Amino acid sequence: MKTILCFFLFSVGLSALGAAGDISQATVTLPYSELRGLLERAQAARDDRVPPKPPVDVWVQSANYVVDCTDLAAVSLQARFSVVNLSDTWQSVFLVKDSEGIRSLDPPDAKLVPMDGGRCLLLEPKAASIVTLGLQAAPVQRSQRGQLLADFMAVGAGQSTLELRHAEDPAAIIVTGAVAANREKTKFSLPASGGSVQVKLYAPEAMQPTQWQASAKHWIRDMGGVMQVSCHLRLNATDGGLTSRAQVSLASPASVNSVADFGRGGGVRDSIEMTAQGPILHLEWPHDEATTREVMIQYAVPIDLVAEQFAVPLVRVEGAKKTDSACYLSDFDGVEVTPTAGAWMPLGRLPDWMGASVRIEKLRYLTLSDTAALELSARPLPRVKTASATVETAEYVSELVAEGSLLHRAKLVIEHADAAEYRFVLPAGGKLLSSSINGRSMDPLLAEDGGLILNLPKGSGTHSKTTVGYVFTSKGPKMNPVEGRVSLELPRTPLFVHRLIWQLQLPSEYQATALEGNVVIDAGDAHGGSVRLSKQIYDDEAPIASLYYTRRDLER
Predict the structure, then answer these.
(1) Residues in Cβ contact with 32 at an 8 Å cutoff, skipping those fewer than 6 apart
(2) Which of 137, 121, 136, 124 shows the shortest CA–CA distance to 82?
(3) What keywords appear on the UniProt entry (predicted)?
(4) Residue 50 has pLDDT above 70, yes or no
């Protein structure tokens, strides 16, 4: 083996000192045992790579709690944790708060130390442990709201459960903090994130829904044929009954859009039951000691003006001792509304939830008590029709030849909100040569009165602008060789015209000397036959000009 290796090194040395052969053409011969050793060493080097690190260092695989309240005089709480350390270092994991007294520990040598305001379990690198803690149950507390049997903080875990051992009616057992339970209320699933868990036992009378006293503020708005109502509902309990449920109804044809918890609270859950009389809204909150509930209900009602009257369904709380309703009405489009019973009241301070954007002077205010609907009378207001379109600028260029023929070019900028019509009537004897809308050739329609109609398209904005162009000819008498008068007329349109600019081009051998008509001269050219005319603010009128002219060479 040594001889072969020496020979190989000697050959490599010769090549490096000046051998003319290409090194890529060289060959190497090794015994199989030597090659296998090289491969094994290379594989071992690859196996020395650092394994990937887990995304977490310590993992609470499961947390299982058992509350035994078969004897209400001696309620017990036990917690069993399965914990795994995935790292190569010591780790700690939080199990219980300091306020939860520990009665027993299994195994006794488990490394449970006070840390971070609680008791933490210490784990050696790559270790796993199962720990069972006997905890002090919550002191038995009795009130008209129920009897507290257990109150603890569950830790986050991959699997978290609660087993409840009791001999009570399941309907009287309320567990807050759980996400699911069986019918007997003996097995509960807890959220993986952990959280507060309470077990309460209620007396039969405490499981009956409370009688609420309700206060509802309605903001009613016209949203184009549909009323949108925002209702802030506040419920106050009047007895020791259950405050986690309420039933709200609306008269048909109201339809509920959304329900949201208002202010503090653990969140409201809602479900809608549709009936022939209207929707019934079932509200449910977490079981707690709250005696006040607040929700925001959004619903819609079609506006149906029958005999100039309509009704706004108001929120009603089933079984409430009293329901006070305040109604705020924004202005209705094109309708004047007044209550059929009572009168509008002075408007005071608006509720904060309505926002600062509400203009007080446009609101009407009324209060009602124990009423299912607000009855209103409606008087449609007369509506003045505005112009569908107006001409912002109209520019005309007219060229006159000595034989009396005229060629007219028109360019108009028309402002309109929706699709509209541009109607125009050519002067007597006029002939249209071409027309366009926004540069695109378009043939006009012929009206019964002989006028022409161009349909203007609807734009994307609230005030669209369309450019209309057309060319037409007209015929007049032959111009006098010395002096004379020529009468000119432009098309008439019923649209309002803000400004007209009229450029009149005479033959080069003539010049204008005077003007009559309903237009004025803006500027003239003393050396040529160009006259600029204008007219401001007119409609349904044909611009007319009677122009006096003379031959230019008569002054020489």
Answers:
(1) none
(2) 121
(3) Signal
(4) no
Widest Cα–Cα separation across the chain? 133
Q: How far apart are the first and last CA of the chain?
A: 129
pLDDT in tens, 361-390: 678 999 999 899 999 988 888 877 788 899
Nearest CA among 268, 263, 262, 216 for reference residue 243: 268
The count of residues in the chain is 556
Q: Are 157 and 60 in contact (CB under 8 A)?
A: yes
Q: What is the band of 139 on the pLDDT scale with cuts at 50, 70, 90?
A: low
Residue 425 per-residue DSSP state: B
Burial class (CB in 10 A: 0-12, 13-18, 19+), 485: middle
Bond preceding residue 427 cis, omega within 30 of 0: no
Cα gap 365→180, rounded to integer Å: 46
Angle at 482 between CA 477 and CA 485, to 5 degrees: 45
Rounded distance, CA 396 to CA 497, Å?
A: 13
Tell me the per-residue pLDDT of 283-311, one tens digit each, with 9 for 90 and over.
Answer: 988 777 788 999 999 999 998 777 788 88
Give me the torsion for CA of 86, 92, 94, 99, rounded to 10°: 160
What is the Cα 441 distance to its own chain's centre? 42
336, 377 contact by CB (below 8 A) = no
Q: Contact, 299 vs 306, CB < 8 A?
A: no
Tell me, what amino acid is at 194? G
Contact in structure between 94 and 155 (CB atoms under 8 Å): yes
What's the burial of 519, exposed, middle or buried (CB within 10 Å: 0-12/13-18/19+)? buried
- In this structure, what token pair is assigned to residue 36? 């296998």
Which of these, 291, 220, 204, lies nearest to 254 by C-alpha position?
220
Among 436, 422, 432, smallest CA distance to 392 is for 422
pTM of the shown model: 0.52
Q: What would the two tokens of residue 458 be? A: 């609807």
What distance in Å separates the CA atoms of residue 13 and residue 19, rounded to the nearest whole number? Answer: 9
**Sign of the alpha-carbon torsion through 143, 148, 153, 154:** negative
Q: Are 441 and 477 in contact (CB under 8 A)?
A: no
Look at strands 118-123 and 112-115 and give their pairing: antiparallel
Cα–Cα distance measured from residue 490 to residue 428, given in angstroms and rounded to the nearest whole number: 10
Q: Give residue 47's identity as a one-letter amino acid code.
A: D
Report the SS3 class of residue 427.
coil
Q: Which residue has the tokens 């050396």?
A: 527
Q: Rounded to the nearest 5°, which phi and psi values hold at 207?
A: -85, -5
Distance CA 358, CA 241 (A): 38
Cα distance between residue 347 and residue 194, in whole Å: 49
Nearest one of 497, 539, 540, 546 to 519, comparing CA atoms:
546
3-class DSSP assignment, residue 39? helix
